[in-house]
Amino acid sequence: MSKWDGKLRKLDAYRWEISPDYKPGMKVPGIVYASDAMMESIKEDQSLEQVANVAFLPGIMKYSLAMPDIHWGYGFPIGGVAATRVSDGVVSPGGVGYDINCGVRLLKTNLTEEEVRPRIRDLINHIFNNVPSGLGSEGKIVVSEKDLKHLMAEGAHWAVKKGYGQKGDLDATEEMGCMRDADPDAVSSKAIKRGMPQSGTLGSGNHFLEIQTVKEIFDQAAAEAMGIIAPGQVLILIHTGSRGLGHQVCGDYLRIMETAAIKYSIRLPDKQLACAPIQSDEGKKYLSAMACAANYAWANRQCIAHWIRESFAAIFHKSLESLGMDQVYDVAHNIAKIETHHVDGKAVSVCVHRKGATRAFPPHHEDVPEKYKDIGQPVLIPGDMGRVSYIALGSEKALAETFGSTCHGAGRMQSRGAAKRSQRGSDVAHDLEARGITIKTGDMSALAEEASEAYKDITQVIEVAHQSGISKKVVMTAPIGVIKG
Amino acid sequence: METPFEIIDHTADIGIAVQGSTLKHLFENAAVGLFSMITDLTAVEDSIEYPINISSDTKENLLVDWLNELIYVYEVEHIIFKHFNINILSDTALEALCFGDSLNNKRHLIKREVKAATYHMLSITNDINGFHATVIFDI
């Protein structure tokens, strides 16, 4: 793939601008958050062209944004953020992606690394058997079409009502685990058929479960507000999304939007950006169907969290209460949300597309749960398998500059094929074990595709987000056990 | 003998560059490419026969719809396909008989999940050597 050779203007230490003159049709500039060194590698593919393309979307406000974990996607770059005005702007399914509400949930425990390490193999095996990973391993939850419609309307609430988890979990979930605009009638029968057997499954690819320990605390008071007290404490990270249901919703609506874009005379430089006015029938239906898939993902992570808690209780012969397995938070990083933001001093209702980006609201924002009012919204940023992850907090700067958004992960740097050529799955497993990380996976060859070398260094990504002020790092964690579907 | 398909690299995902002496062969080879990404087809039998009839608006969209229909049937019916006979193909409609095996975790190692065939970099061209297509999959 050719190198991107467009013009960039450096605005400050971590922000780069693509002028709207770069391409006729851009309605706003592009702004990319990156360090000098990262920018050199970002230019290696066409992700910056995608930032420019997103600036074509009707009703886009201020900028087409890219977070420091930007990499080449389709239509939108991964790490892309775009806010479109609800009154006359568009919604684009490509700005959310196929894995609607792919996201991350973090649970804490009262256990320490010393207590968990001796049992880690048993624990990992127990969780692997207790959490279905996907196709062919049918879900543990049997849902009828009618059940699934309730699940899609109620999200994580459905799962809690069925006994998976506790009410405190909902308070610590973005949107309380349920988008209210969900309308199951906007979801195709094909999406429902794909969703039924996959309810409560992890999936594969870059989805994983990790047993982590706290490595470093950068802000003790904020960490304690999240129940994270000291290095060595054990945490659990769950990374998955809406499975086949979300993939089908995205595919169905990309096709509908392709026709709609012609109908509403929307000129786009890339078919994968297909969109429709938010106020149109097509736009409203997509948002309703997307909300169903988002709710499905929240129910999914809710069930998986429950089974992980069960596994801990079984292995350590302790009650959930004494294990202190509260939910720290749950964030979506592939989603479109209607939010109110201030643009040029006026409150405007916008549709914020976050495609591989995390909401990062500041302290005292109305959408931040009561217990985090003083610190801001927790942002969970998983590193790649085998490397460190971070917990950060949202900020006023994010609200002012990025429609309340920050990065979502490390960002892929190497293609899956390239990763596989340079690594063998068994070598990756061996390397992880040598570094004290116990791994359990269904398929070794898939492991090579997710090797650490395939990703940017998460620490650099976090540093840019932290130094530029769009989120504030609080805790760094490292895995001791990984389960990959 | 032509190479029916090659895996191509894309930063986040995986694509296939497909060849076919005719448009029918191109569509058949693209389907073989898809299932080769999912599992090793030598361990797959072809005892199940499954008809697929679809229509679309352009031949490029028809190719994406064909591949996404196969992903759908695989996920819902748990059938891995390995042979495809496309009996009728125009720029906007396709009728095929697909042959495959029931997914069995003991016999089939699933290499990866394919979420969807995308429109990203999608192309179908033809020259004196036949038909060529590029399809990127979301993995």
Please tell me about this protein's structure:
By secondary structure, chain A is of the alpha+beta class. Chain A has 17 helices and 19 strands. In chain A, strand 1 and strand 2 form a beta hairpin. Helix content of chain B is 25%, strand content 41%. In chain B, strands 1, 2, 6, 7 and 8 form a five-stranded antiparallel β-sheet that branches. Chain B is globular, with a radius of gyration of 14 Å. Chain B is built from two helices and eight strands. The interface between A and B is large, with 49 and 35 residues.
What attributes characterize this protein structure?
heterodimer, A: alpha+beta, tRNA-splicing ligase RtcB, 7-stranded mixed beta sheet, 19 strands, globular, B: alpha+beta, Archease, Possible Chaperone, Chain: A, domain 1, 3-stranded antiparallel beta sheet
What's a concise summary of this model?
The complex is a heterodimer of chains A (485) and B (139). With 485 residues, chain A is of the alpha+beta class.
List the helices and strands and how they pair.
The complex is a heterodimer of chains A (485) and B (139).
Chain A: E1 9-12, E2 15-18, E3 30-33, H1 36-42, H2 47-54, E4 60-74, E5 76-85, E6 90-91, E7 103-112, H3 113-116, H4 120-130, H5 145-154, H6 156-161, H7 167-171, H8 189-198, E8 208-217, H9 220-225, E9 233-240, H10 243-263, E10 276-277, H11 281-316, H12 320-323, E11 327-332, E12 334-343, E13 346-355, E14 358-359, E15 378-381, E16 389-393, H13 396-401, E17 405-406, H14 416-422, H15 425-434, E18 438-441, H16 444-449, H17 458-468, E19 472-484
Parallel strand pairs in A: 3-4, 18-19
Antiparallel strand pairs in A: 1-2, 2-3, 4-5, 5-13, 6-10, 7-9, 7-11, 8-9, 8-19, 12-13, 14-17, 15-16, 16-19
Helix pairs in contact in A: 4-11, 5-11, 8-10, 10-11
Chain B: E1 5-9, E2 14-20, H1 23-38, E3 48-55, H2 59-77, E4 79-89, E5 93-102, E6 116-117, E7 123-127, E8 130-138
